[in-house]
Write a structure and sequence with these properties.
CATH topology of the largest domain: Rossmann fold
Shape: elongated
Number of helices: 11
Strand content: 5-15%
CATH superfamily of the largest domain: HAD superfamily/HAD-like
Largest sheet: 5 strands, parallel
Distance between the termini: 15 Å
Number of domains: 2
Structural class: alpha/beta
CATH architecture of the largest domain: 3-Layer(aba) Sandwich
Length: 212
């Protein structure tokens, strides 16, 4: 028997938006004069603290540079912040419109994302970003997924119990943490398989007007 959620909680990166374009990643790595594999390693090394608001932009990019034995000028840091924020602003196919469609039918929706302040500020200015009943950003809350407190805060904002919501995320650790709280969840590693799982498990309007 399929479940009828009262709310759907969307992760942002790789769910509502696409992965960072290769050109933006190359531009970021180029400023630091690093090969992309090494850049990616140091980029993510301090990201949780940045997402949680524990590091400001200058401190984050300085930590990234120092981990790779590099130094940055203030203008380079400004450019890194600009490119990084822009790189997360490209909408994914189908899902933003599906979020709008769900909300139009009366299903509550939420955005729950690990995201630093500069990216948050940038994407809130994107005209394609849907409206949500609740928006929870890790940089504001001070904790990141998969900490249980951030899920609980989002559910409180929506006014629903864990069993009444569906959670979508592209990271398995975040999915498992949600399930541990009683939240039904779908791993969004690939849109077609995720939509097929939603079709099998949940009674929801179809994304993009296409049958689930």
């Amino acid at each position: 028997m399929r479940v009828s959620p009262k709310a759907v909680i969307f992760d942002y990166g790789n769910v509502l938006c696409q992965s960072q374009p290769a050109g933006d990643v190359q531009a970021l790595a180029g400023i630091l004069d690093l090969p992309i594999p090494r850049f990616s390693e140091v980029y993510w090394q301090f990201r949780i603290a940045y997402d949680a608001g524990a590091l400001d932009p200058a401190a984050y990019w300085t930590a990234v540079a120092e981990a790779a034995s590099r130094q940055l000028t203030p203008s380079q840091i400004g450019r890194l912040v600009e490119i990084d924020s822009r790189s997360w602003s490209h909408p994914a196919p189908v899902m933003p419109q599906w979020a709008r469609d769900l909300r139009a039918t009366g299903i509550h929706t939420a955005l729950l994302s690990n995201m630093p302040f500069p990216v948050r500020d940038y994407i809130l200015g994107c005209p394609w970003l849907p409206d949500f009943n609740a928006r929870v950003f890790s940089c504001e809350f001070g904790r990141t997924k998969p900490a249980p407190e951030i899920y609980e805060h989002c559910l409180q904002q929506l006014g629903v119990a864990p069993t009444e919501a569906l959670f979508l995320d592209d990271r398995e650790s975040n999915i498992r943490a949600a399930e541990a709280l009683g939240l039904p969840a779908v791993l969004f590693s690939e849109p077609a398989s995720a939509i097929a799982e939603i079709r099998d498990r949940f009674d929801l309007p179809a994304p993009g007007g296409l049958p689930l």
